[in-house]
Design a protein that fits this description.
Length: 139
């Protein structure tokens, strides 16, 4: 059975960094898919929202980008899931702890199960790193 290790840090200020895309055709194709991705933009009335709690985007065979529904958190933070040979890394910036409203663990387990069916490897340990961000206002 896979283990779950949670590392919770105090708030870390995160900065956006532009990554240089590799010159290979495969990398270009994945990058192009990400640039063309149209994320769910939310609802005018969250009481009528029918969008999933978590939007899942497969970047490549081992990398997923998940996004929290804007009706669950106005920032609609991203969660990154990286599937390794033996372990899974979840970089969680999500803002909702309620597993009923925001089934993050269930979603990650389904991604792991799907990958395990492809490569035959089961029992991967899950490492979760959760951080929040904040803005520094300078006067």
């Amino acid at each position: 059975m896979a283990g779950l290790l949670l590392i919770s840090t105090s708030c870390i200020c995160a900065a956006a960094v532009d990554a240089e895309i590799s010159a290979t055709d495969r990398s270009r194709a994945f990058a192009s898919n990400l640039y063309q991705k149209k994320w769910i933009h939310g609802s005018a009335d969250c009481k009528l929202n029918a969008d999933p709690a978590i939007e899942v985007f497969r970047y490549d065979r081992s990398s997923y980008i998940l996004r929290q529904n804007k009706c669950l958190g106005f920032e609609a933070p991203f969660i990154f899931v990286l599937l390794g040979e033996e372990k899974v890394l979840v970089l969680d910036t999500g803002a909702t702890e309620n597993a009923v409203d925001f089934p993050l663990y269930k979603t990650v387990r389904s991604l792991i199960r799907e990958r395990s069916e492809q490569d035959g490897k089961t029992g991967k340990e899950i490492l979760v790193i959760h951080w929040c961000h904040f803005r520094i206002r300078m006067k």
